[in-house]
Structures are given as structure tokens and as C-alpha cells.
Amino acid sequence: MENTSALQLVRETDDFVASLIAQMDLAEKIGQMCQIDVAGEALSEELKARLSAGEVGSIINQVDVELVNEIQRVAVEESRLGIPLLIGRDVIHGFKTVLPIPIGQAASWNRDLVEAGARISALEAARAGVNWTFAPMLDIARDPRWGRVAESFGEDPFLASMLGAAMVSGFQGQSLRDNGSIAACAKHFAGYGAAESGRDYATTNIPENELRNVYLQPFHAAVTAGAATVMTSFGDLNGIPCTANGFLLRQILREEWGFSGFVVSDWDSVFHLKVHGLTADDAGSALEAAQAGVDMEMASTTYKQYLAQLVEQGKLSESVIDQAVARILRLKLALGLFENPYTEPEALPAYGNRQALDVARQTARESIVMLKNAETLLPLSANTLRSIAVVGPLADAPYEQLGTWIFDGDSALSVTPLEAIRRRVGPEVEVNFFQAMATSRDRNTDAFEAVAEAAGQSDVVLMFLGEESILSGEAHCRADINLPGAQAELVRKLKAAGKPIIAVILAGRPLTLTNVIDEIDALLFAWHPGTMGGEAISDLLFGDFSPSGKLPVSFPRHVGQVPIYYNHKNSGKPPSDDAIVHIDDIDANATQTSLGMTAFHLDEGFRPLFPFGFGLSYADFVYANLSCDKQQVRLGETLRISAEVSNQGSCKAIETVQLYIRDLVGNVTRPVRELKGFRRIELEPGQTETVTFDLHTDDLAFFGRDQQRVIEAGEFRVWIGGSSEAELETGFSLID
Ligand code: BGC
User: Fold this and answer.
1) Strand pairing of 185-189 and 229-232?
2) Each residue of 277-327: pLDDT tens digit?
3) Are residues 685 and 651 in contact, defined by beta-carbon separation less than 8 angstroms?
4) Which of 330, 134, 136, 132 is nearest to 221 (CA)?
């Protein structure tokens, strides 16, 4: 019954779209393939003329709902065919209510929460008339120098796949037709995160096998989850810019994955094809992009200028255009825009409502990762403290805690750490605030002496350090990823004053903390936590909740180790802790030799400062009794793997239990560990739970030497634990 009606819907959609296309002239068709930027523009006569002429399929960057409604009205009532518009906007981590940056959300490892966050973002954006967003960003990010690591879900394809699919579901809801659902866009297809030296827009070279086994995985998951659209990457991938890359856009996306949504370019990325040196002129760029499968051009105007001429010259088949238009119209139909293109803001929840703020607070709380807690300094007890010194450039910076690319974020909603701490401890505890630096980049140390002396009078020093919002995100890459400005010096000065130092770092990327970690007694890494960051930080500092975040990326000891990620290959000479030679221990005039040497750096070894999956808790989780329900599994069967986790601490807390495997032999080499599952559990003190994972042999598939998916018989190792360095180990074999 259900199938019959689904089939009927598809037929009706196809009929509707086909009959509309039959009425369109070539210019109107091409109009649907053009998205124009209307940032800050009132409804000018020129824009009106373009809308009425049917030259526009979508606009980007208008969020004044009255204007959006008026723009829709002109498109619908004054154009010949009355086709409504897609209203695009980047809603990356919230709209008015700002959630933690995506890398922070990833640290929660909480699918439900990521979905809930996307839902509140969609509801808020929809209130402004937005019906299409350019998120999630699914680029695997293994280089913290890259500013857009902030927008990513980190280094691991499995985690990024799970969270990306959750975000798609949150934006799109049960049905795109529902009030408050907006279309998602999986971006940037593909490989954008691998830009050379972490410089945004720089070239990417990724072997096909690595592309398939790592970089494409989250996109496949998003497509499977029903993502309505896909955006191409700015990057040049193996010599063919992604916006002209038929291998990616036709072979993989459409033929192999059966993607039926549409593909949009990135901003001006069709025009960039000429700059890349792939085409000689804009007409050539329009041709390459359209032929490769880019259905809509964002911002630049090569489609508007050249597609008609290319068809007339016989260089481009009109059927390519018809297919693109059909895909775009299908989304408009699915969103219900033909029935009602207008937005009634009052029919949607208010901005910054209680539910939105609660989701933002919980997400921020669960995104924070505790990296150090010497002498169990945390949590603080507000009852026994007399005074707290709050120090640093990010303690009371309502805008900076929001993070990158939040054009609509309302910093008036922000609760800063200083505000939240004051509220939490009440009038009994003296809170002394010293900003000490004008910005996180400030190099002026003049105030440090006096601040150290004054702060040293308090019982404890809370430092709010890190990066301002503008130091990460698109086009904001750093070669040096230490704390910027004179912050490390501020830490040293305050440490010398003799009081315990608790640092809370707000940043858009993993930072190298090697030069300060020994001076700091306790460390919470809070990313850019968004609107409710202050409350979330205070929730953890004072023990109302235990930290539960786990790193979605490895933190290098030194920037020279980059890229450093847990799921690397073994190499022929894998390093080990007991075979490291340190640069200081090499004799003068040493004889040249490589014997006994392995894949490490003389000055930094091979380990990160903090590994993927790591994060401390106020509880003490102990893992035991790892077992598989069988030693041998046959193709098509499911293996049940379990371990006992007990909370041997004294407070209730959430733990993210992680399952890793290693496929010991493959026809292409396999990573030393791969995340294959995770479960979040909450345990009371003294409680033990048996956590079980069902691993199907399909979960062991990978792309082999011939780039086909394969499951190979052989030996596998298994670990369950609280980080990618989990020690509890067992194994099984897969037999044909
Ligand atoms: C970014 C995209 C974004 C687009 C629209 C581009 O510069 O790369 O991720 O969606 O702008 O704002």
C-alpha cells in the first residue's frame, strides 16, 4: 500500500516536472540553474526584472523574511511560469541560537544531539524564509592548520558519517514539506580537507583508494540519509578541479551511489576553472562544469552568459540542461514550494527560545573535552572557595565564543563564562576578572605582572584562552597552531604566582599545547562553544555534570607532525615507544645508519599530545572482559563483541565506549586501527554495564586494489575502550 502511494508520488512528481519543463524555453531552463547573491540588497528594479524574466532559480544571503516573501512573490506572480525560488543560506552551526562549531559537536559523539541541533537551526532559519542550507560539511580534516577543520567532524570517516547523517536528518526532518524543514547540502565534494599544507583552496592529491576508503565515506552516508543536494569543492583533485570532475560527479555520485538530488557549485567555483588553468575562458568553464554534472552555479554567472550559446553551437546537449532543471524542480516540489512559497514567521518557534537554548547548552556541555585534571583539581566546589580570578581575552567575549561563519548568530543571546561563573557561585564568592590582553593575538605583555600579582591573591585562577572566531574558518589557516599572541607567557606568569591554574581553551581547531601543558593543572578544551558556552563551561567547572567529550581529532605535539591521525597505515618500519632515538641523545660525529630506526621524528617521536577519542571524566571508567561471541565468523554473519565498563569513581558520568578493529592483511594495506562503533552510556558510581556491539561482516568491507568493495577472509584484532589507544584487546577470524 505504502509502496503504491510512494510510486504514485514519484509518477506525479515526474509528470509535473516534465510538463513544466515542456513549457520552458531555453533561457528559463538556464535561469533555474543560476543562484544569485543578493546579500543586503533591497528588491532593486534590476533584481525584479531578473526574477520576472525567470532568470533566477535560487538566491543566497537574504534573511529578511518580508523581503524574502516579496522576492518569492515576484518570482511566483510576475514570472511567466511562476516557479518559486530556493532561498539558500549557510546555517553551519545554528542560526540566531548558535551551537558549538561542528568539530565541537563531533566531540560530543552524540548523534541525537547533533540531529536536535540541526533541527533547531532549521526551525530558526526557516523563520527567516530560508529553505536550503549549505551544511553539513563532511570533509575529513586531518590538518589542524586548515581553518575549516572548525566546520568538520574531524579526522575519522566513521564518526563523520554517523554525525553527518544525523545532521542531514535534523535539517530535513521527517519530510521536507514540513514547516521548519530545510534542504541539506553535503559539502564539499570531495577531498577539500586535504589541501596541501592546510592552506585553504590549495591543491589536493588523494589516491583513488584513499579517496574511496576515507574521504568519500561521509558523503556516501549523507546521500544514503537522503541529503537533497551536494556542493562541489573549490579544490583541484588530482589535476581535475572538483567542479569539473566527472569522475566524482557522474561516475561516483550518480552512477555508483544513485544520487537523485542536485549538485551546486561552490561560490564562483565554476568561474575558478579558468583560474585553475583547466579552461581558457568562461564559456569553457560553463561547458566543463555542466558536462561534469554541476546542476546549479553559485554566485558566478558563466551559466547565464554561456549555456544557451553552448547549446546553440551544439557543444552541449540540451538534455544535460533538462536533467539539471528536473532535479532542481523536484526539490522545489518536495519542499512544497509550489503549494506555498511564503513564510509565516509566527507559525514557527521564536528565535532563541527555551528549547533552542537548552539544546545549545547541552551540546556545548557535551562537546567540551577535559584534557588534564592533575590532583583532581576539578570540579571546583563553590562552597569552599572564597575567591576566583578569571583571566584572559576569552572570558567575557560574547561574539568570540560563537565561532566561525555565523552571519545570523545573535551575540546578545550569548552567556559568557564570566557571567555564568558569577551567577553560579553567587555573591559569597569574590570573582575578580582580568582580561590581561586586548585580543587572543595581543603580544603586549605590559599588564601581565600586575595581573599575576592580583590574580595570585585568589584561591584559584581560571584562564580563558584560545583563538578568536576569526582565526579559524574559511580562508583562515595558520602555520603556527600554538596559542596565539602572548598567551603562553601569560600562563607562565600566572603559574609563577603559585595558585592552581585551570585553563579553558576556546578555539576553532586543535592547538599545539606542548609549551603550556605542564604549567596548567587542569584543562578543558571547549572549542567555540556558541551561545550557551558560558553556562556549559560553568556546568562542568562546578561539577553539576562531568565532562564527557572525546576528541574527534588527534592533537599534535608539534605542528611539524601534521598530518597525524590515529587510523594511519602501519608502514614497513612502524615506531614503538621503546625504540625512539631523541635528537639530544645522538653522539657527535655519529655514524650514518638507519638500522633499528623507524617512522618517528627525532625531536617529537610519533605520538600525538592527545589521541583521537581521548577525553577525561570526573568518574573513573574501568574496562574489562572483552569478548567476541565466536572466534570465527563466516561471511554474512554478525559478530557480537562486548566488554564490561564500570564506573569506579564517585560521580555519575557519561562515557563514550569505542570499538576499534584492525584487519591484519589486505590486498591493499589497512589502517592500524579503525573505529567501527561507539556507544554513549551513563553510569552511576559503582555501576557496571556490559556494552555490546554487533559487527556484521559487511562492516569489514573496504575498497581494494581494483577499487571495488571487498570483504576478505583473515585475522582481525579488536579493541574496546575509552580512546583510540584502548588497550583491552582480542581478535577473531573471518572465514569464507
Ligand atoms: C564556502 C561554502 C559556502 C558558500 C556560501 C563558500 O565560500 O566554501 O562552504 O556554503 O561560500 O556562502
Assistant:
1) parallel
2) 999 999 999 999 999 999 999 999 999 999 999 999 999 999 999 999 999
3) yes
4) 136
Q: Report the chain's mean pLDDT, rounded to a whole number.
A: 97
Report the run of H or E that residue 123 belongs to, with start and end: helix 111-127
Helices (H), 207-352: 208-210, 217-224, 246, 272-276, 282-292, 302-312, 318-334
Q: Given ligand 1 and candidates 130, 266, 408, 472, which is best to mutate, with the most ligand atoms within 8 Å of its CB?
A: 266
CA of 178 to the centre of ligand 1 (A): 26
What atom in ligand 1 is closest to the CA of residue 137?
A: 9
How far apart are the CA of 297 and the centre of ligand 1, in A? 12
Q: Is 266 in the pocket of ligand 1 (CB under 6 A)?
A: yes
In ligand 1, the atom with minimum distance to the C-alpha of 135 is 10
Q: Which residues make beta-bridge pairs with 730?
A: 718
Of the candidates 152, 198, 188, the one whose C-alpha atom is nearest the C-alpha of residue 477 is 198
From atom 8 of ligand 1, which residue's Cα is the shortest distance away? 266
**Going by C-beta distance under 8 Å and a sequence separation of 6 or more, which residues neighbour residue 335?**
86, 131, 176, 177, 181, 183
Ligand 1, residues 38, 90, 192, 243: which to mutate, most atoms within 8 A of Cβ? 90
Q: Active site includes 706?
A: no
Instruction: Establish whether residue 143 lines the binding site of ligand 1, counting it when its CB lies within 6 angstroms of any ligand atom.
Output: no
Helix (H, G, I), strand (E, B) or coil at 235: coil
Active-site choice (139, 143, 266, 408): 266
3-state secondary structure of 683: strand
pLDDT of residue 1: 44
Containing 256, the helix (H) or strand (E) segment is: none
Residue with the nearest Cα to atom 6 of ligand 1?
267
545-575: b (≥16 Cβ within 10 Å) or e:
bbbbbbbbbbbbbbbebbbbbbbbeeeeeeb
Where do we find the cell 660525529? 589
Q: Residues 622, 648: contact at Cβ < 8 Å?
A: yes
Best CA proximity match to 612, nearest among 156, 143, 109, 113 = 156
Q: From CA 476, how far away is CA 605, in angstroms rounded? A: 29
716 CB under 6 A from ligand 1? no
Report which of 69, 82, 70 is spatially closest to residue 31, judged by C-alpha positions: 82
- pLDDT on residue 3: 61
Residue whose grid cell is 580537507: 193
> How far away, in angstroms, is 77 Cα from ligand 1 center?
30
Burial of residue 706 (CB within 10 Å: 0-12, 13-18, 19+) is exposed
Give the residue carrying C-alpha cell 575529513: 140
Of 76, 11, 75, 3, nearest to 38 (Cα)?
75
Is residue 550 within 6 Å of ligand 1 at its C-beta?
no
187 lines ligand 1 (CB under 6 A): yes
pLDDT at 4: 66
Mean pLDDT by 10 residues, the chain (736 residues): 70 92 98 95 92 98 97 98 98 98 99 98 98 98 98 98 98 97 98 98 98 98 98 98 98 98 98 98 98 98 98 98 98 97 98 98 98 97 94 98 97 98 97 98 98 96 98 98 98 96 98 98 98 98 98 98 98 96 96 94 98 98 98 98 98 98 98 98 98 98 98 98 98 96
Q: Is the pTM of the predicted complex or chain greater than 0.85?
A: yes
The DSSP H or E segment spanning 688 is strand 688-696
How remote is the CA of residue 547 from the centroid of ligand 1, in Å? 33
- Buried-exposed string 614-627: b where 16+ CB fall within 10 A, e elsewhere: bbbbbbebebeebe
HSE, CB side, 13 Å, CA atoms: give it for residue 26. 15
